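Q&A FORM
Asked by: J.P.
Topic: structure of DUF4383 domain-containing protein

PROVIDED:
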Amino acid sequence: MVAWVLRVLVALGLLGSAWVHYDLWANQGFSDIDTIGPLFLVNVVAGVVLALAVLFWHHWLPVLGAIGFGAVTLVAYLISLTPGGLFGVHEEFRMASEVWGVVTEAGCVVLGIALLALQVRARSQGRQAVRA
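REPLIED BY: S.T.
REPLY: Here is the structure written out as tokens.
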């Protein structure tokens, strides 16, 4: 039961991040920004694909992908907060979408690590049961 709840929460984090990036791309002018605009669309597609994979493929690989997705997206955002920005885009952490992006991406990382640890433990216990 815990694994299923974690799986759903990780998928919701992925979909939440995808939605934030889609909204920024479609409604906040990010579609007009070179490099960042296309990367936001990649984020949208990757978030949806990974969410489906986490929900329906009960393997460690999509969970690891979700952790990586959250970490890379969060690091990219943190770089955009620096004076140099990211690909010429400088953020200031003042919009609600920025808060939701950080929350969903941090959730992907933290909850993904918890789910991965649970999967590894369950797999390890399964191997021990077979050996006994």
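FOLLOW-UP: The chain has a mean pLDDT of 90.
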